[in-house]
Design a protein that fits this description.
Length: 209
């Protein structure tokens, strides 16, 4: 499995210029705005990771990988290990940058930084848990289209719900989400990644290359 992870990291390494651009954009965004821009780096890393599927499809990597011992299993394990590792590293770098920037601006709030770190980490995990099975199932091109349609549908539903004035949320429920919402989101993201892994594994075991 280690070789599969190294392969993805090597592909991303070839796009290191994009990462440098992301860091520059992040620095400019944070210094020129009061908003937290630490989401930029993990999001860019996630997009670069998605590009590894295009490289795999173009070079017919999976057709070769399935001939290796435990090839199908390692294809899935490698992708999930790669995205979790890359997300963790990107979030860590983004957090360190945020602390440095806000320290220089005398506006350091460690509680807010921690909140943002967990929120962005769980967000990437949730997006990944949805994206990976689609990419395994439909390939890089069709998978992106299906993902776009899904995300568009989710945002459409959220927009419709926001317009519904009749929806009333109890104060006790709001208080619960304010206190435990982030922890609940973290648990949900982990459960989604576990479910996503087994779903992707099932897809790969049945797929013909």
């Amino acid at each position: 499995m280690l070789g599969f992870i190294k392969k993805d990291l090597f592909i991303i390494k070839n796009n290191v210029k994009s990462l440098l651009i992301a860091i520059v954009i992040y620095a400019l965004f944070v210094f020129s705005n009061d908003m937290d821009g630490s989401f930029i780096l993990p999001f860019m890393v996630f997009m670069l990771f998605i590009s590894t599927f295009s490289y795999d499809d173009y070079n017919k990597w999976n057709a070769y990988a399935v001939t290796l011992p435990k090839g199908r299993d390692n294809i899935v394990k490698g992708k999930y290990a790669s995205i979790i590792s890359l997300t963790f590293i990107a979030i860590l770098l983004g957090t360190v940058c945020s602390i440095l920037v806000y320290t220089l601006k005398n506006r350091l709030d460690l509680e807010q930084v921690l909140f943002s770190t967990i929120a962005y980490f769980t967000t990437i995990l949730i997006i990944s848990s949805i994206t990976l099975p689609l990419l395994f199932k439909y390939g890089s091109e069709k998978g992106r289209i299906v993902l776009f349609v899904m995300i568009f549908g989710i945002f459409s539903i959220i927009s419709i719900l926001k317009e519904c004035k009749d929806i009333v949320i109890s104060s006790s429920l709001l208080s619960f989400f304010q206190q435990y919402g982030l922890f609940l989101l973290l648990v949900i993201s982990i459960l989604m990644m576990i479910t996503s892994y087994f779903l992707s594994k099932k897809i790969i075991l049945k797929k013909e290359f």
